[in-house]
Amino acid sequence: MINIPTIKKLIEDEGHVFVSSSQEQGSFGCVIFTHLKGHENYKYAIKVFDVDDGSKKNCSQEKIQECQKEARALKILSHKNVVAYHSEKQLGLFYFIIMEMCQSSLHVWSQSNQNIIQDSLFYSIARQILDGLDYIHNKDWILRDLKPQNILINQEVEKIKIKLCDFGAARYYPKQINPKSTNCFGTLNYMPPEVIKEIFLQNHKLKQTPQGDIWAYGICLLSIGKPILNFNDYIKKNWQAPYTPLLKTKSNFSRVRIKRSSPQSC
C-alpha cells in the first residue's frame, strides 16, 4: 500500500506541480492527479509504482524494467484514442509515468449512468474504442487487458472522447512471431474461451493474440449496455473465480471470475 502523503511530498518537492487529488490504489500502486503550479489548465495524471525490492532501501531492477516497458508502449502508441504520454522519472523507491489526465473511466461512467445509452452515443463509444484498438494492433502490439476500467473518457457536452490506457500488460509481437507468453495477463471476465481453457489445463505457454483483444472489446460493449442486459448482475450470479497456480501470483486476478454456466443455460 502506497503512502499518499509521502508521494504528494515527493512530487511537490520537485517544484513544478501541485497534487490536486488521488485515485484509489490498484495492484500496481496508485494514480495521482496534478496540475502545473500557476497553470491549473495544465493537468496531468501520474501513475505511481512502488519499485522497492522489499528491503525498504533499494529498488528492484525487474520492477523498474516493467515500468519502463509500460512507458515505452505509451511513447510509441500515439493516437487520438490512446492516452497521451508526457514523461517519466524515478524518485526514491517510486517510479512515475506522467500522462494525459481524463475525467473518468468508462466503468465509472457506465455505473453512474442509470439511463439507457442512446444508439448514437453507443456507436460513438464503440467506434472510438475500435479505432484505438485497430491502431494498436497495426503497430504489432497486443493489449491483453482491455476492460472498461482501462478505457478513459472525457465528456464534452453530449460528446464523449475515448482514450485507451494502462499498458502494463501490453506486449509487442511482430506479425511474423507467434505470440506466446509464459505468464497469463489480463482479467478473466474479458478473456476468450480458448485462453481460459489453457489456464485450466495449466498450459505454461499461453497464446494471447489480437483476437483476444477483440473478444474483450465485445465484452466491454456488453458491459456498458447493462441497463438492457443487466450484465454486472449476471456476472455476480453466474461467474466464479478459479484456482490455478498460473494465476495465484497475479493480484490483478483476486477480483475476477470465470463463467461456469453451460452454453445451453445462457
Automatic annotation (TrEMBL):
Pfam families: Pkinase (PF00069). InterPro entries: CC_SR_Kinase, Kinase-like_dom_sf, Prot_kinase_dom. One of its GO terms (cellular component) is nucleus. GO terms for molecular function: ATP binding; protein kinase activity. The keyword Lipoprotein does not apply. Keywords: ATP-binding, Kinase, Nucleotide-binding, Protein synthesis inhibitor, Transferase. GO terms for biological process: negative regulation of translation. Residues 17-266 form the Protein kinase domain. This is Protein kinase. The lineage of its organism: Eukaryota, Sar, Alveolata, Ciliophora, Intramacronucleata.
